[in-house]
Amino acid sequence: MAKNVKKSETIPTEGMMNIKVGVLPGKAKSWEFKIGTQLNAVLTKAELSRTGYQVKINNETIKAKINPVIKNGDTVLLVKKIAGN
Q1: pTM, whole model, 2 decimals?
Q2: pLDDT of amino acid 13
Q3: What is the pLDDT of residue 84?
Q4: Which of 4, 53, 77, 82 has its CA 20 to 30 A from that of 44?
């Protein structure tokens, strides 16, 4: 048997995933989405808008025009933008 052989990771394309979605300050709520759902669809279902907020996925800021696929277990937060001095 060969050693150090890594299996390629397969990404599921069917089924459901659980993620948390919320606005800070406040609480995040658990939601269920189909695997492969993109950020904008998540925000639409949660009745949230990016306007006036920074979007963070797992504490990583997402640029305004980016619409990544959300993964099982992700946390999507809208954080109020604060103007600088």
Answers
A1: 0.78
A2: 57
A3: 64
A4: 82
